[in-house]
Amino acid sequence: MSVTAYFLGQRNSLPTNNQFVISTLPGQKSKVILPDGTNVWINSDSELEYSSDRNKRVVHLKGEAYFEVTHSKDHPFIVKLGDWDIRVLGTKFNVSNYPESDMREASLLEGKISVETENHRNDLEIIPGERITYNAKTKDIVKQKAAVKDDILWMDGVLSFNNDSFQEIVFRLEKYYGVSFEYNPNDFKNIHYTGQLDNLSLRNVLEFMSLTMPVNYKIEKTKVIITRK
Question: Can you give the residue ranges of every domain in the chain?
Answer without folding.
Answer: 2-149, 157-228
